[in-house]
Amino acid sequence: MLFRNDDSSIPDPLPNADDITRDVREHAAEALRMLQEYEAKQGSEGESGLIDNQTTYDLKEAAAQALRMKQQQTTIIQQPKPATLSEDTTEPSQKRSDLFSDAHILHLILAESEVYVVDPTGEMVIGRSDKVTDYAPDIDLTQYGAYRLGLSRRHALVRRGQNTLELVDLGSRNGTYINDQALEAEQPQRLHDGDRVRLGNLTFRVAFESRS
Description:
The protein is 20% helix and 22% strand. By secondary structure, it is of the alpha+beta class. The strands form two sheets. Strands 2-1-11-10-7-8 form a six-stranded antiparallel beta sheet, with no helix packed on it. Strands 4-3-5-6-9 form a five-stranded mixed beta sheet, with no helix packed on it. β10 and β11 form a beta hairpin. α1 runs antiparallel to α2 (50-73).
């Protein structure tokens, strides 16, 4: 059964969706500003409650994570950057395989070639965790700046079929896209090897890899 999200607290997508693959550390100041503005607003309105606590926690997590990554950057020798996901090198889906069998495993290739490995079974929710309510999706992209990039807690669903994989938007606030084509809520769309997926403003490529 599919459920719609109620994530009214998460930010809207950034104006330029092609810039989403920049590292989260570049936005430390922005995350801190969002937190300070939110806390100032809450203080002036005298509001409180679970939803406010969740939002404050998410902003603190995003700000702290961005600052940690920014600090780590100073210890890394700069290397030539690889091609980013913003470069439109995706071939038409009909030219790529949609076969996903028991011999395959799914790789989500994020910014700077970070890989999130998934062994799809049945239906798996993609989203971000919430420590306030102790919720964690099956595929948790929190560490990749999920809150700031507009992911819902239950954003989308990966469904394993008969030698296929499908992606389903779960009524997310900021949308789900395959190769820049928006998915209708709760309408499955078959994935192909090499597809570019965008959830809100977080982009990754899917790769059907052989099991070793």
